[in-house]
Each structure stands twice: as structure tokens, then as C-alpha cells.
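Ops channel
N.P.: pipeline sanity check, posting one input/output pair.
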């Protein structure tokens, strides 16, 4: 059984561009939801939101039950001004088992804080309270 929890080392120990290249090589050798999520997360961390979304969508095609893929899609949608899509992605993240302790949950909370006056995000904090 393989570990479906992909984590990237902190930026101080690994350049995200190197991580992106590593995951792209893995995608060419053996594409999976996990390898495409790796590309998507690395791109997100570098601010390449379009590439991140493309990779995360590919990950979702291969495995649409990965809560971390849905969570990063939530972040991409928040950062690109698409709150309705962000809410839908977060619903799927919660439904597929996103946990409170995941680093991405804190990133979603921080992104919500930066948009606290935006009523379009009103349902997202409620969804975050549903995490186990």
C-alpha cells in the first residue's frame, strides 16, 4: 500500500522549482493523482496559479477523492477571485476527508482572513468548522 499523503519539504530545504521538475518527471514516468498533485502544489507555492490549477485538475481526473487536491483547488480559486468555485472545491475537500491538522487548512484560513470583508466567501468559514 502506498502513502497518499504528499508533503513538500519547507522552502528552506527544497526549491519548489526543483520539486516541480521532480514531480513532472514522475508524471511522465507514471502519472497518478499523487504525482500531478505534487506538480500542482509546487506551482501553487511558486505563485504559478494557472499551471497549478491545470495540474490539480489533472490530479482530480486521476483521483477525485483526494482531499488535499480539492483543498489546493480551493486556494487557487480563492486567489483567483472565484469564491463560488472555492466553496464547491472546499465542500468536496471536506466530503473526501480533509482534516484540521493539514497545513493547507491553515493556508485556507489565512486566505479567508485576507478577504474578511468579502461576503462572497461567507460559507467557507462554516465549512472549515466541519473538519474533523
Amino acid at each position: 500500500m502506498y502513502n497518499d499523503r504528499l508533503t513538500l519539504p519547507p522552502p528552506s530545504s527544497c526549491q519548489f522549482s526543483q520539486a516541480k521538475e521532480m514531480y513532472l518527471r514522475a508524471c511522465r514516468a507514471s502519472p497518478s493523482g499523487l504525482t500531478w498533485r505534487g506538480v500542482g502544489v509546487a506551482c501553487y507555492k511558486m505563485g504559478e496559479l494557472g499551471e497549478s490549477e491545470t495540474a490539480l485538475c489533472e490530479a482530480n481526473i486521476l483521483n477525485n477523492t483526494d482531499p488535499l487536491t480539492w483543498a489546493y483547488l480551493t486556494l487557487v480559486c480563492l486567489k483567483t477571485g472565484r469564491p463560488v468555485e472555492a466553496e464547491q472545491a472546499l465542500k468536496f475537500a471536506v466530503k473526501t476527508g480533509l482534516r484540521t491538522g493539514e497545513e493547507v487548512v491553515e493556508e485556507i484560513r489565512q486566505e479567508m482572513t485576507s478577504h474578511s470583508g468579502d461576503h462572497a466567501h461567507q460559507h467557507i468559514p462554516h465549512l472549515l468548522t466541519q473538519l474533523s
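N.P.: looks fine end to end. The radius of gyration is 14 Å.
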